[in-house]
């Protein structure tokens, strides 16, 4: 067994949340070791849609969702699916999701997300101003499209909440939609346009660039799977899959959808599940895309990236083990071709990723009950890229023992426990 004693702060997982946590820990004067079992950006951070969705403060767990969801489930390739073999396993998570959709919990979720998103926007601005990272951001605006006046009207209360939270957008009709994005199918006559919408043009590249920054500033990256974290009086001893151990003064668990096992071993049973998402990245010449398009009635997006056009979204509650069902990416692509009739659908690359999702749609950011030296940063669901820099900041503050920039109560790991 080998022991390494030079680690001060260890971050488990080099997705966007882990590398941001590492960057902010460094800013607090910590010497950081990132431990990743595969490579930087091996998980959800590699292939997401790249949207910095700061206005997305409305939790999916919302009043009435449990009546809408069964209708979506009827279509096995629709916006939401549960593979039959996973039906029973997802039941406890769905129970918490149902509880999180009460009016009170929903209002609490909006308040928590609003604070988080303002911090997220401020911290991501710092990233955009960092010379090594600036090239990964495009401000092209976001167009939220609706199939009908009825669905546009049904979303009015959500937009009101976003307006109250200080986000800016304008309602646009067909003429303006045509100007903002020529080539859409005729049914799209109602949309919201957010001119400040920001796109990360290469989510994997950004994650790698942040990891490079961490190493350039004196941090280290080590390959290995963390199997155990054993807190002690000086911090924790981390055991890797090859039997090596690392002594650390503090540890951050940022293993995305795989964080549940490590947290459970530490005595924190968090109801983390994965919402699997699918997409296809088409060559850039597939369509003259002007900006991010979100098809609200179908829960999928079409986004312009430096490598091409990414078409995807949807939610499959299928756990970490089942093989991907790429019929879902194909179904999304076929739908996109109906909505953008000139879209060339050939030559794409399909991908499936594991969103790390909590039932109340809020991340877990806080200390483990096992030790103040062990911190959690996972469970960001659909918003991990958006909230990564903010999470890094909060982790840095926790590690430094300074007051956090916002109340961490909504994000506490034990919130689903009885009395938690
Ligand atoms: C289809 C799709 C579209 C999305 N679009 C957007 C979007 O537009 N905007 C947005 O904000 N978010 C989006 N998301 C969500 C976002 O991608 C995730 O929330 C985010 O990437 C999570 O980052 P993470 O670092 O927590 O996890 P991950 O990126 O999954 O990284 C976790 C890392 O930890 C490593 N790891 C796990 N366990 C261990 C261990 N025991 N030891 C060592 N290493 C370990 C894994 O190998 C992995 O590299 C999307 C997700 C999907 C699937």
Automatic annotation (TrEMBL):
Pfam families: DAO (PF01266). InterPro entries: FAD-dep_OxRdtase, FAD/NAD-bd_sf. GO terms for cellular component: cytoplasm. Transmembrane segments: none annotated. Coiled coil: none annotated. It comes from the Bacteria. Residues 8-398 form the FAD dependent oxidoreductase domain. One of its GO terms (molecular function) is oxidoreductase activity. Keywords: Oxidoreductase. The keyword Oxidoreductase applies. PANTHER family: GLYCINE OXIDASE (PTHR13847:SF289), SARCOSINE DEHYDROGENASE-RELATED (PTHR13847). This is FAD dependent oxidoreductase domain-containing protein. The lineage of its organism: Bacteria, Pseudomonadati, Pseudomonadota, Alphaproteobacteria, Hyphomicrobiales.
